[in-house]
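Can you please make up a protein's amino acid sequence together with its fold in token form to help me picture the idea?
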Amino acid sequence: MRKRAAGPALLLAASLAFAVVPQATALPDRAPERAAAPDATAPEAAGPGTDHATDDPFTADRTNWFRQDRFGMFIHFGTYSNLEGEYKKADGSVCRDAEWIQRQCGIPKAEYEKQAATFNPADFDAKAVVKAAKDAGMRYIVITSKHHEGYAMWPTKVNDWNLRDHSSFDKSRDILAELKKASDDAGIKLGFYYSIWDWHDEDFPDPATFPKYEKRMRAQLKELVDNYDPALLWFDGEWDTDKPNNPWTARDGEKLEAYLRDLDPDLVINNRVGKRRVVDGDYGTPEQEIPGAPVDGQLWESCMTLNDHWGFARYDQNWKSAATLTRNLLSTTSRSGNYLLNVGPDARGRVPQPSVDRLKQMGDWLRTSGQGEAVFGARYGGLVEEPAWGSVSRKGDKLYAAATQWPTDGSALHLKARTDFKVTSARVLGSDQRVEVTKSGDGYDIKPSGAATNDTATVIELKVDPGPAARPGKGKGLKQEIFDNAELSGTPKITRTDATVNHAWKYEGSPDAGIPSDKFSVRWSGKLEPRRSETYTLTTVSDDVARVWIDGKLVIDSWTPHEPKIDKAQVKLTAGTRHSIRIDYAENTGEAHMKLLWSSPGQEQQIIPAAQLYAN
């Protein structure tokens, strides 16, 4: 983990494209990536007809816990922890860093291995770690099983560069097994961080020998999945870099993700399994930042530190306040994100007391007066714009307005409405004060009669009535026509009904076994029926090119060849009305992706379901 100039937000950014192009044209070939070598541990290679989009993470049962739990603990712990953030060089100067200390301080490999042999986290107490998470209100834990230094924190059979075989730690102990049991006993899910980038493995940097490393990497991941049954895998170290060179490609990510889903179809996997893009994994990973709005096209989780480092650094006492951390949690929830907050145990395996104290304070806030309802199971407020005075999340028919700036002198808190809805009741959690809600201008004014309940955030619960929705549709999908060329020309080779426009054919897949993986195109047509009358955002995730028409109007035109990309359009749709829809898509070479999502003030972001799509 480390800040870099090109942040994750750039890779998650959405764009709008509305230029009209009169007709489909052939697409230029793109340069091929280095193909990953065959791996005996991998499932059979994909081919024409393979589709890696097995479900919609926004609605799948597999990811339901992740969408509901919202708050997790990150743990950065490895043999770098043994140095506690400081390294004394031969010239007597002291170099400081944490989990990157080997690389940033230029520690020779032999010397680094020598210090690792003294690593003895004998005081690591899995029950205490889980208790700290539980006291904070955290619902899941992600621990570094292997960071960039390549050191495994479990007794791997793949090499001896691990906590059992290269340390002074009790060889009969396994901290991942201890943490797994403690987590299970507490009802907390456990996941593992695993770095693709490896500074220690000599086969890693050379593309010619990299497949040997890949084989060992997969063997280690199989150990983690088979022996510890994680709910989640959190990858890192996928970016292009040097010292050492990183050969990882998007094609490698495709193969690894397919391999892992073959091991355990229920795994939740982050987007750093590939190249940190919207088409990789199940969710995006903004680092040390909170996006200003819900992320388009992908679930997301913001990972952040309690101070200025991920690993333990004895000199770093720049701790964030519990109020700031709690407000960060509220902000992520109000934008349908998760908050993964890091602790870094010291050389003995102890979580620093300032971390424990702040986590406890966060948990106290969440447990007080039911304020945790604003977080757990909650999501983007949707019905209203996020106010400057706080944040708003939604859970069912309730909005939770968390005010960090309380009104004074009888003034009101104003909420700007994004759609028509009624407020039927209001109360301040933890107080019996009266709350007056009146329509005002572009929304509602909220006037509490008393003081704030605490300095961190005071939560006002608003019960809302968004109005009736049409009954669920009875559709079964759109008409799909598939062409064996990139120009949508000639007679379709295949015509059928496609339940949803949710496809990740990636490099080696295609819409059908009879269609080659390159140079094909697809047209979907039919009707789209919303359940609410609102302005919807239609979002496409595509590569190579895509267009969308609604009621004969071209609303998304992204026909210039591109890498995986998001495009959006705002369209007014009427409940119960079947609006005509047409989607054109083409693939020349390289990756192939095509997804169509919708969202509105009253509709969570999701792949448009089959029930609302009609083939005619």
